Amino acid sequence: RREIIRRAPQRQFENPIINFNNFALISKELLLKFFITENHVHKNHMFEMNEHGKIWLVFPKIEDDGEIVFYQMRCITERGFRSSGPKQYVYKQRFDNKPLAIVEDFISYCRVSEFVDCVCLYGTSLNNEDVSYIIDNYNSILIWLDNDYTKDINAGQIAANKICKNLKYQLYYKNINRGFTVQDSGIKNIVTEQDPKYYSDTEIKQILGV
Predict the structure, then answer these.
(1) Separation of alpha carbons 160 and 148, rounded Å
(2) What CA–CA distances, in Å, run from 71 to 36, 135, 178?
(3) What is the pLDDT of residue 1?
(4) How many CA atoms lie within 13 A of 186 on its CB side?
(5) CA distance 134 to 122
(6) What is the pLDDT of residue 42?
(7) CB atoms inside a 10 Å sphere around CB 206
(8) Residue ranges with strand state E in 1-114
(9) Contacts 24+ apart (CB under 8 A), 171-179
(10) 54-62 and 68-75: which strand pairing?
(11) Which residues of the chain fall below pLDDT 70?
(12) Which of 23, 196, 26 is nearest to 114 (CA)?
């Protein structure tokens, strides 16, 4: 039976492979390298596409009604990413009195969101509307982006510092207007040698302090 995932921006997904056990071996190997299991794939609605001889993993942003409103695709057989639609961050909010972690990529999001509330940026930028939302709803915010220390320009940490400054600025502005004492100690940039997805569950919890 031909299956069609709900219409995403600019396209439909026909015959998606939604069962981890049926993924191509090359996809499984990549995901298992990052400790991604069948449970992660199912909970985060990840699926695989075989298109013109290329194998893609699809990382969707899905609304409550099942509509895909944004997606990013990672080519497994070649190096490359594709995305569609105006970028929309993916939030997972299910813990009480837990920090919010901000991560760069969907696989890191799948891992980190097991332990704290989490947002996937699908990149390195955070818009002002979401900065305002985060400041209003979280006292503890952890920015954990890639550390591109091996490159000439450490784009991940440049972006992380920019997000930290923006969060602290908006917190300062809101507190001044409300007459509160300004506190920004709950905003922290986490810098590790590797991306979040490379660490074990135990290591992630230790790094997050939860």
Answers:
(1) 11
(2) 19, 26, 38
(3) 32
(4) 18
(5) 17
(6) 93
(7) 11
(8) 4-8, 11-14, 47-51, 54-62, 68-75, 81-84, 90-92, 100-103
(9) 171/135, 174/135, 174/136
(10) antiparallel
(11) 1-12, 85-86, 176-185
(12) 196
The amino acid occupying position 141 is: I
Residue 84 tokens, joined: 């569609």
- The first and second tokens of residue 85, run together, are 């639609």
For residue 73, the one-letter residue type is M
List the one residue out of 127, 124, 131, 121 whose CA is nearest residue 170: 131
Please state the φ and ψ torsions of residue 76, each to the nearest 5 degrees.
Answer: -90, -35
- Hey, CA dihedral for 196, 202, 207, 208, is it positive or negative? positive
Q: Please give the DSSP secondary-structure letter assigned to residue 113.
A: T
Cα–Cα distance between 29 and 81 in angstroms, integer?
18
pLDDT at residue 184, as a whole number: 57
User: Rounded CA gap, 26 and 28, in Å?
Assistant: 6
Q: Residue 55: how many CA atoms within 13 Å on its side-chain side?
A: 14
- Record the tokens describing residue 164, joined without a space: 């930290």
- Write out the two tokens for 122: 């699908």
